User: Fold these one by one.
Assistant:
Number 1:
Amino acid sequence: MSRFIVRRFLSVIPTLFIIVTLSFFLIRLAPGGPFSGEKKLPPEIMANIMRKYHMDEPLVKQYFRYMGDVLQFDLGPSYRYKDQTVNDLIGNAFPVSVMLGTMALGTALLLGTIVGITSALKQNKWQDYAAMSVAVLGISVPAFVVGPILMLIFALKLKWLPTSGWLSSRAGALTLIMPIITLMMPYFAYIARMSRGSLIEVMRSDYVRTARAKGLKESVVIRKHVLKGAMLPIVTYLGPAFSGIITGSVVVEQIFVIPGIGRIFVQSALNRDYTVIMGDVIVYSIILIAANFVVDILYGLLDPRISYK
Amino acid sequence: MTDDVILQVKDLKAYFKLDEGLLKAVDGVSFDLRKGETLGIVGESGSGKSVTNLAIMRLIPSPPGHIAGGEVVFMGDDILKMSDDGIRKIRGNKISMIFQDPMTCLNPFLKISTQMIETIVLHQGLDKKAAKEKAVDMLKLAGIPAPEKRIDQYPHQFSGGMRQRVMIAMALSCEPEILIADEPTTALDVTIQAQILELINELSERLGTAVILITHSLGVVAGMCDSICVMYAGRIVERGTADEIFSDPRHPYTQGLIKSVPRLDKVSTQRLYSIPGQPPNVINLPDCCPFFPRCERAMDVCKTKYPKVAELGDKRTVACWLYGEGK
Amino acid sequence: MPSIDKNNDRATNEFNQYVKPVSLWADAWKRLRRNKMAVLGMWIVAIYMVVTFGAALLPFKSYTEQEMLHINLPPSFKPAGVVALGRLEERKVELEAAITRSGRADLKQDLTRIENEIIQLKGEVDTDPKHKRVYILGTDYLGRDMLARTIYGGQISIMIGLIGTLTAAMIGIVLGSLGGYLGGWVDNLIGRFVDLMYSLPYMLVVIIIMSMLPTGSNSIFVLYIAIAMISWLTISRVVRGQIISLKNSEFVEAARSMGAGSGRIIFRHLLPNSLGIIIIYSTLQFPSFIMNESFLSFLGLGVSAPRASWGTLVSEGVQGMQLYPWRLLVPAVSMTVFLFAMNFLGDGLRDALDPQSKNRN
Ligand SMILES: Nc1ncnc2c1ncn2[C@@H]1O[C@H](COP(=O)(O)OP(=O)(O)OP(=O)(O)O)[C@@H](O)[C@H]1O
Ligand SMILES: [Mg+2]
């Protein structure tokens, strides 16, 4: 097991390296820079700025300098927010996004499996049809439609919930409700469909027939023999789901004005704030890789047929 | 002897409602099983052997399947009319079943011990510890070496033959009246097949269990069964004791099956006989003898009507126009 | 002796029952037609296609023409002049009340302006044909017809979806079948690349690409390339798997033994047999293209003005949604209905073409 973890961990390094390198050159090659948007600066000030950020050096040198810094967990200064480093910016925003993401994924997982199981047990009854139509709706409606419509109804018309903000604001935990619903919708829907399908398949499997032939009650059959096998595919889906949620949070943070890394990402992309974009890409990639890593290990723990040698 | 009939199947029908039409997988099957007897059910793939036995246990997947009629009388009660609780007390306890493919029939996520103990605890009211001891004993009986150790392993750590032994141990752990063995050896190596059959034979004799042995080859049932039912397209076409069936087969289908069994006593240079053609698709079958397209002795009447079942003696029947009034 | 006419006619079976000869596709079509939601989805998609692409031929208003007197009109079947006039008069009453009751003298100016506008509008309302227009879905913040804008927005969104799907399918098919058929280092290289791309947060990459474009460039083209470049991954994996499983099948061996070359085997034998699964994946991917494009447009990184996609319209609608909810709801609902239909159609196709599918959910 530990050998597997180490090997898996080592295989991550080249991926990360390639991601960082690719995005570094991609971004530098783009026309325009972080300072081109501002009103024309006098050339000597421009030169000063360039020198300060080492942008007058050859590209390759800049690359190695950047890589060296990154290895020491220093993501550099922000070009836009003059007095903040990328580490500060991301450090403040990261917990917010991770909290939003995990809560959304947790809710999606919980509700999705409950709805999926109910609808598999009521297969082809109205509950099933209703749940599955809702699920297709959940998959079809994009977050940037769900979010504003929820906001319109619950915040602006009914005034039950605050329109935006995050925990620290006066409304407290109420601020979480709409962002979480918006973010989890498609994943909830997908998990519901997936767990229904997988449950139905397992309920038809040979080993469940064996369990029934033993005289076990249907509830025991489901609990003891069906659920575990049926939930395994969901575990494999958690990796992609998490990465989707992370991307999705870019929009949700935008809509509900949440100070997370998604919002920083869009802002810095619009401002061409290179170092911040780069830092964000690195953080996102690490989150994704870590999520897939955890899922792999989880899968191995749940399925006795898999052994890590 | 006639009075210790423990299972009586009368005119059992099990249909599947499919998109293509109504599939009469089992269409009027009747037979008796006596205490301690071994009954063979023989027929080609798709003839309805498994569905017959799943229907006896009320395990037909529904939808699309349902039991369309008949009676299954077990020790005086009709299983088909029992409450759900009633049938559950019989499953795994009075009648147990082992299936065709041992690779898929054990739950891959649970230890063998968990899977065996739950049945014993459920039906025999033992506590977990006693149940585990019983399970170990059963595994030992079933020929699993070092059962104390192996019982805590998962199914994937067992070979196919070993898994089938586990299935047998599990099925017999509550000392049932009837063991239904649905092609228990089809998925196994030839060398292991004989061992498994021998094991079933030996254990059932020791425990006094009656066995319904399903197979598609007459060769398998020859040595083991007291009586035999031959199925074709959802119906029993011939029924009798093993001796009668082998020494005096009446139905052309049975005759064909027997001709196609490889014989060790008659060294032959000829190619093994096989019945020409394919078994029919039983969806929307017309009223006729379903065997006529493949039958060498088919007559005009065979194409228009299913033959009356002719009683040829005690428990000896054949459904063919060559016999009975038709003759 | 029995006289059985065996199989002299292929359309009857051994029991002389008529058997309809069914091809895979006919069979699939039959199954699809039985699925009510899929049929509904198909109709909705068809209607959208006809309306959006036939828009130029249909009597819709211009989606670019601005009309300052018709700004933010609510949906109505009445002529625009009447609706606008009604709104101005309401406003006038409100202002008068505010001035007399709360003594807000500062609003006097507004009142006179509105009174002037009313007079102007009254003068035009019966003569100027533009006031006879009917905006059944209202207008936006520049007085443009929401119906026309939504239809043209749909045209762009659907177009991007179509082109994106086709591009992704093409790249995916070529790379997938190359990898699957040739195996070896080619397969390895492609596989590694696909793995790498999978581990990228890919919408973020698109965001970076989009943000790098010089402002004002023709971004639609780049946009769909950017999305398609990263969306072929799944298709290529699926095609590769299909090709590998078919590669060693009997009919391919037969073709090879008859001297067919690799190209011929791929195009005549392997791909047609993978067509079903390619169609399924493409249909299911189509809505996600539209979503991704709209996602970018919503962030302000997608289609740029004067063009607008559904995403642009939704994001414009969000700006004033409290006062003018129709500006959000009209494009949002249109888009959702289309995606809903597309998803049902995709599910239906999957069930019809691949009834044993394990990936059903
Ligand atoms: N769950 C099901 N759904 C639809 N049709 C079924 C189902 N189970 C069985 N059938 C059909 O019922 C008929 C009889 O099947 P059955 O499994 O009893 O055959 P069998 O004699 O056991 O064959 P085999 O030797 O292959 O096990 C077949 O035509 C089969 O297709
Ligand atoms: Mg069977």
Note: The longest strand of chain B covers residues 5-18.
Number 2:
Amino acid sequence: MKTWKELPLGGIIKDVGNTKDYITGTWRTERPVFLEDKCTQCFMCCMVCPDSAVIIKDEKVIGFNYNHCKGCGICAVECLSKPKAIEMEQEEQF
Amino acid sequence: MSKRVVMTGNETVAEAVRQINPDVVAAYPITPSTAVVEYISQYVADGLIDTEFVTAESEHSALSACIGAAAGGGRVMNATSAQGLALMWEMLYIASAMRLPMILAVVNRALSGPINIHGDHSDTMGARDCGWIQLYSENCQEVYDNMLQAVRISEHIDVRTPVIVALDGFITSHAIDTLETERDEDVKRFIGDYITLNSILDTKNVVTYGAIDFQDYYFEHKRQQLEGLHKSAEIIKSVGEEFGRTFGREYGFFEGYKLDDAEYAIVAMNSAAGTIKTVIDDLREEGVKAGLLKLRVFRPFPAAEIAEALKTMKVVAILDRTSTAGAQGGPLFSEIRSALYSESSRPGIVNYIYGLGGKDLTPEHIRYVYDTLRRIDRTGKIDRLVDYLNLREEGGQD
Ligand code: SF4
Ligand code: SF4
């Protein structure tokens, strides 16, 4: 890690987007589990996730980035599919 | 070629701003600094400056806009007083932590409560740990000169730290004073061009300001922030010397008035110094070796230089124009007493709180202080380490 003399002035970040290197998934007590067969691909979960932790590949939701998902459960509440395509499970099960 | 002019303190601040022609002024007017903002908006309306003038809805927003503009790479200025400065508190720390150069003229006024609009130093003294450089001004000339030097100090590549230029409410801000101003082109040459560093508007070199900073880097960033303040000491000195060479008025950390051979010294800031000098002249004629140390730079605190100047005195009185707030004395007193601790021989030292809420400080009060210093010297006894000047109380000096 850098000493105070090596840091850019005023706490600025020059390698913008380095939040992805900051792992916050360990804060989670519950994790969202993606049930692919129930998903209608409405993208509501992507819009409401405060941590941009919903993974989209080839224009499809495929699951969650557990390095950054903090387990808030908003996606599971807001999921528009019936039955829901996201279930919250206790973290210790994994 | 300088010009002798007549101005109020507020007009002086605005005249310096006109000559500096900053990119952005974001401000919210408050007594007694209101006229500064009025003059600047007039200059903008009249096309005298091409400053972007932002009328914010509060001082918190005004300073926030200044921070944004400074992060965008602009030369930025602002003015406020008392409650206005208090409302900026949160953003004061953020401006200095982001190492953003900017100048904030603070017309000193008592903080409520009780509510009051007159001059004392409770506002800037309360902001003394916000990481800003603080320059104090005795009169309009010093206001003008401090404003111009503040640009150079704040923007210096080793400093990049915001600066407060302080002047006393009403006494300096509203009283008409004579001063010398310099030609626009000479001022322009002295302050130089703004050096943009890490602008958030530079889309080729994208940077983030104000990111979250936890146990891993917060402490390191705070230490780095201090470096700007530490290094500013030598820059303040060299800019003050260069200002002297350029315009004939040299500045240092403080002014010693008949201090070198003095036995009894008062330390004070801002307009009180004028009254003190008058009393010193009278006392000198009476054979009393009285002197004054008028502090200009409160942050960074020039502890070693002050200790050097005061260590040979017999007894010293520190005048604080703010409440002690339950401390061992006023902030100036605590700093100076601490600065003298490592000297092998130290003068006796007492503290006077004066002028709160604009209460008068007359030559009689100053004379009383020097009389007390001489009595302490004779008797070796300090009755009151911290006392109050011109306060109605039983057994008081008034
Ligand atoms: S639980 Fe919260 S953080 Fe995790 S993916 Fe769902 S909305 Fe995002
Ligand atoms: S909100 Fe539910 S249904 Fe919609 S994309 Fe996300 S998981 Fe699929």
Note: Residues 48 and 75 of chain A are 6 Å apart (CA to CA).
